[in-house]
Amino acid sequence: MLIIRPLQENDLDDLHNMAASAGNGLTTLPPDRQLLEGKIRKARDTFEGRCQPDAGLYLFALEDTSLKRCVGISGIQARVGLNEVFYNYRLSITVRDSRELGVHVRTPTLYLTNDMTDSTEIGSLLLAESHRGGGNGLVLSRSRFLFLDEFRQHFSDKIFAEMRGVSDEAGQSPLWEALGRRFFDMDYVAADRLSARGNKSFIAELMPQFPIYLSLLPDSAREVIGEVHTNTRPALNMLQAEGFNFNGLVDIFDGGPVVEAFLHNIRTIRQSILRPVKRVDRPLLDNLSASDRVMVSNRAFEDFRVGTLPRQAIRDEEVQIPGPIMEALGVSEGDQVRLAPLKDPLF
Ligand SMILES: CC(C)(COP(=O)(O)OP(=O)(O)OC[C@H]1O[C@@H](n2cnc3c(N)ncnc32)[C@H](O)[C@@H]1OP(=O)(O)O)[C@@H](O)C(=O)NCCC(=O)NCCSC(=O)CCC(=O)O
C-alpha cells in the first residue's frame, strides 16, 4: 500500500538516495545530508506546532508500506520571502515605435521582481525511479491540495510552483551561462547548491538589477526561458490539469517558468467532498489504474495521511473503506474523511 504522511527523521537515507539520483536543478533537494536533515527538522517543527503554521515548511513522504520505505517526497512552503528576498524575472515586452521612421520593435525584456512575496509555494516533488508511472506521481502531487483545502487558513490565496528549468546532463544551464555567470563567477551546479543552502537572495543581489533585453542574449539562452527540464514535464502536466497557468515569471537562474492558481480554483479543491467512514471487509485492489481510484485523506494536521480507494467506495451517505486502509489513515468508523479525484472527476 502507498500512503502519504508527514516526512520523518528516519526517512533521511531514502530521501538522500532519491536526491542523489535526481540530477541537477532540483534546488530544494540537493544530495546534501546535512541540508536534508535540516529540512526534515523544520518540517517536524511545523507539523508538531513548534513553528508558526503560516510560516511553516510542510514536507510529505510517499511511503511504500510493504517496503517500509519512503519512495517519494513533496512539499508546501506556507509563505515565501519572509526571511529573505524572493526574486523572479518577469518576462515583459518593451515596445519602441517611430512613425517617422516606420519602425515598430517589440523586445522581450526581463525585469527583476519580488512579486511572489507572501505567496504559498508547492515544490520539492520527487518520486523514486522505481515507482514512476502508474499514478504515483499524481498522488504525490495532488495530495498536497487536500492538505491546503483542509488547512487553508494557514496559506495564501495564491499557490505557485517554480518549475525546474532546462539544464543538460553535465549540469550546464544555458540561461545561467549567458547571464548569471557573468556576474557571479561560478558554474550553475555550484550556484544552485549555494541557493539550496539559503543563499539564493544573496546571489540574486549580485546579479543585474536593470532590465535585460532578450535580444542581447544568445539564442541558446533565449530558447530556454519559460521552458522546463524534460524530467519535469509530468510535474507541469499535472499542475496544468489542476488549473495552474504560467504567470509570466521565470526563475532567475535557469529560466524555469512559475505557474500559479488561486486556491479555490484548484481542481482537486473544487471537487473535494467529505463523507463519514464505513468499515468494509474487502480486498485492497492495489493494482487499479489511476482512473479507477480516488484520493482519501484524514483531517489531521500533525498526522495528515492520504491513500487511495476504488472509486466505487464512494456512496451517497458514506465511504466504504477496508480495515487496513482505515488503520493506515488513522481513522475510525464514523469519522469524516476528505475525498478527491486522483485523475478523473469523482462523479
Ligand atoms: C514529477 C514526477 C514526481 C511525476 O511522477 P511520474 O513520472 O510517475 O508521473 P506519471 O504518473 O507518469 O505522469 C504524471 C502525468 O504527467 C503526464 N506525463 C508523463 N510524461 C509526460 C511528458 N513527457 N510530457 C507531458 N506530460 C507527461 C502523464 O500522462 C500524467 O498525466 P495524466 O495522468 O493526466 O495522463 C516524477 O517524474 C519525478 O520525480 N521527476 C523528477 C523530479 C522533478 O523534475 N520534479 C519536479 C520539479 S519542479 C517542482 O518540484 C515544482 C512542482 C511541484 O511541486 O508540483
UniProtKB/TrEMBL annotation:
Database matches in Gene3D superfamilies: 2.40.40.20
UniProt keyword tRNA-binding, yes or no: no
InterPro entries assigned to the protein according to its UniProt record, in alphabetical order: Acyl_CoA_acyltransferase (IPR016181), Arg_succinylTrfase_AstA/AruG (IPR007041), Arginine_N-succinylTrfase (IPR017650)
SUPFAM superfamilies for the chain: Acyl-CoA N-acyltransferases (Nat) (SSF55729)
Keyword terms: Acyltransferase, Arginine metabolism, Transferase
Cytoplasm recorded as keyword: no
EC number(s) reported in the record: 2.3.1.109
Single GO biological process annotation from the record: L-arginine catabolic process
Major enzyme class: transferase
Gene Ontology molecular functions: arginine N-succinyltransferase activity
Protein origin, superkingdom: Bacteria
Record's protein name: Arginine N-succinyltransferase
Organism placement in taxonomy: Bacteria, Pseudomonadati, Pseudomonadota, Gammaproteobacteria, Pseudomonadales
